[in-house]
Amino acid sequence: MSKMHVKMTVNGRAVEALAEPRTLLIHFLREELALTGPHIGCDTSHCGACTVDLDGKSVKSCTVFVAQANGAEVTTIEGLAAADGSLHPLQEAFREHHGLQCGFCTPGMITRAYRLLQENPNPSEAEIRFGISGNLCRCTGYQNIVKAIQAAAQQMAVATTAPGEAAE
């Protein structure tokens, strides 16, 4: 099969490569760009371990062809940390609140939670549980994942409150 020239922005950086159009985005990210944060879990789009942010939406990158991502903006778990290496509030909250055990689902879970908090900065517990329902965790029972997302939401609300304003 012939290769196509693909261009996209990944974690704020412009990338270009030749790839077969039928290459899955997860394989492109891991094998061509060496971004191994998104995990290959089930290959059937059920687990969510491969979740990335694509043009402002959470997607399971095992369901997207690289040709479909041509020209897109992609954010992986690696792109959430600050340029100086400091963790994103979600990453820090997962660490502080023990929102992970084996860690396999964690990159996809955090990436999905990132988009969830962009869509709803102050979600209820039920909204969080519904919002992450496409991402499976076999270890934690979700309690601490929910706590971590709630804590990150509070931290992010405080960080975006202007001086002299009260956080909602």
Could you walk me through the main structural features you see in this protein, from its secondary elements to its overall organization?
- By secondary structure, the protein is an alpha+beta fold.
- The protein has 2 domains: 75 residues, Beta-grasp domain (Ubiquitin-like (UB roll)); 72 residues, DNA polymerase, domain 1 (Orthogonal Bundle).
- A 5-stranded mixed beta sheet has the order 2-1-5-3-4, with helices on both faces.
- The longest helix is centred in the C-terminal third of the chain and has 18 residues.
- The radius of gyration is 16 Å and the shape is globular.
- The model has no long low-confidence stretch (mean pLDDT 93).
- Keywords: 2Fe-2S, Iron, Iron-sulfur, Metal-binding, Oxidoreductase.
- InterPro entries: 2Fe-2S-bd (IPR002888), 2Fe-2S-bd_dom_sf (IPR036884), 2Fe-2S_ferredoxin-like_sf (IPR036010), 2Fe-2S_ferredoxin-type (IPR001041), Beta-grasp_dom_sf (IPR012675), Diverse_Oxidoreductases (IPR051452).
- One of its GO terms (molecular function) is oxidoreductase activity.
